[in-house]
Design brief:
This protein is mostly beta strands. The chain has five helices and 33 strands. The strands form eight sheets. It has a five-stranded mixed beta sheet with strand order 1-22-21-20-19, with no helix packed on it. A four-stranded antiparallel beta sheet has the order 2-33-32-31. A four-stranded antiparallel beta sheet has the order 3-4-5-6, with no helix packed on it.
């Protein structure tokens, strides 16, 4: 077990926080200089799902699902039918008349599941006899089935027909699922990860638990697939576990800790309560090699191949980070309860020739794999560890409530959703200016042609 003692005490922590807040208006590496406010929801917007290169869907506590064009900001379709908040949403396709239709599957607190045709806006299928609310959805295209998780784990075919189910009587139920090789599924259930085996035959379909992974000490908050060989989970008390996707053994275990100032018993109790929140892993994202963990109000970048933390920010936002992602250009993006959306750049650290005598790099002897590294030069340690800095290069201020999540459309921009009931489409100002100029030029040519 590797135990990272991250961050600092007192003034050092304050300096880090102030540095993150003082980027200023001049942000030369931030291309998102234009924004468009998208209105339509009347309660917290919690979910965004990409449909194709230009369309996405939004949903939240008002029970509505809205489909938008990210380039124009146009609201394309309104999907109404749920009577309570949306609890899960996933993109899907179904066949009708020999044609493939883009679709969405939605789940709601009203204990229904719905299949929506995005071309017509019609609700194609509905399941309304569920015993509990569905908290997560997983589509297995290679097997032509999809799964819904809650207090029940249900397997459905493409015609929305229930194939099989298992019942779980725990209060938390299944909160997240990932697809694994050999027709297996990993499901987060309170402090456990349960491995399910899905059997498909001409006679029947069955799913049953074959392994219980009980290595987490607290509730699992995030579960994602890293690549075909690995998946990763994060818990409420800061445990980050990297798992083998085939034999489900632990490949790495990280307990994210940092030093706290000493004090009397009452202050220690208060700090302990605060520390529990600060360590909680709310969200995980990956590009297949790096894993970004949202830990309290901070960010941690973990290299799954090297099995080590390569960059971190103990204080990345003023409040808890709710969602994070690795962008195609290698940058990291995060959003928070404080209403901000921030862009970070992984930068190589300078390589001084002098040996480490104190400070952060002097702590390698505390948590490294070998005490022999404690007296090694900083340059050698940096080269061996791959440690980098996480520098703030963009701060997107537009929401007045907690930003729940975001979607990146590459050159077509970025979409964020918030507790303020709004969505914002963020655009590359230079690209938008060129696009408008081209559109105006084409219009003038058409007028001259007439």
């Amino acid at each position: 077990m590797l135990r990272w003692i991250l961050g600092g005490r007192g003034a050092q922590g304050a300096v880090e926080k102030s540095a993150a807040l003082c980027i200023g208006e001049e942000q030369p590496k931030n291309c998102f200089t234009e924004l468009q406010v998208l209105k339509g929801h009347f309660d917290i917007v919690r979910f965004l799902v990409q449909i194709d290169d230009f369309r996405f869907a939004s949903a939240g506590d008002d029970g509505m699902v809205l489909v938008w064009n990210v380039e124009t900001g146009e609201r394309l379709v309104e999907l109404r039918g749920h009577t309570q908040q949306i609890t899960a949403m996933i993109s899907y396709t179904f066949s009708k008349g020999g044609k493939i239709h883009p679709a969405l599957i939605t789940a709601s607190s009203d204990r229904t599941l719905s299949l929506w045709d995005l071309e017509t806006g019609n609700r194609v299928q509905t399941v309304s006899d569920l015993q509990s609310s569905v908290k997560c959805l997983l589509v297995l295209n290679r097997l032509d089935v999809w799964l819904s998780g809650g207090n029940e784990l249900c397997t459905w075919n493409r015609d929305f027909q229930l194939q099989c189910k298992t019942v779980h009587n725990r209060d938390a139920g299944i909160t997240a699922m990932v697809d694994l090789p050999k027709n297996c599924i990993a499901a987060a259930m309170d402090k456990e990860i349960v491995i399910f085996k899905l059997n498909l035959s001409e006679m029947e379909t069955s799913i049953f638990a074959i392994r219980h992974l009980a290595d987490h000490q607290d509730t699992i908050r995030a579960l994602i697939s890293v690549n075909d060989a690995l998946f990763v989970s994060g818990s409420h008390n800061g445990e980050l576990i990297l798992w083998d996707a085939v034999d489900w053994t632990i490949q790495a275990y990280e307990l994210i800790l940092w030093e706290e100032p000493a004090g009397d018993s009452q202050s220690e109790i208060r700090m302990g309560q605060q520390k529990q929140t600060e360590m909680s892993i709310q969200h995980l994202a990956t590009d297949g090699e790096l894993v970004v963990a949202a830990v309290g109000s901070g960010l941690y970048v973990y290299n799954a191949a090297m099995k080590t933390v390569v960059a971190y920010r103990k204080v990345a936002h003023d409040s808890d980070v709710l969602h994070t992602s690795l962008l195609d250009n290698g940058q990291v993006m995060s959003c928070s309860e404080d209403g901000s959306v921030r862009i970070w750049e992984l930068q190589d650290l300078p390589l001084p020739a002098e040996p480490a005598s104190s400070g952060f790099f002097g702590m390698f002897g505390t948590f490294g794999r070998s005490g022999k590294q404690a007296g090694a030069p900083v340059k050698k340690l940096l080269e061996m560890s791959g440690l980098r800095s996480l520098e703030l290069i963009g701060d997107l201020i537009g929401h007045s409530g907690a930003v729940q999540m975001f979607l990146s459309f590459g050159k077509n921009g970025l979409v964020t959703c918030s507790a303020d009931h709004l969505l914002i489409a963020w655009k590359d100002g230079e690209r938008e200016s060129q696009r408008r100029s081209l559109a105006l030029f084409q219009k003038l040519e058409e007028m001259q042609g007439l």
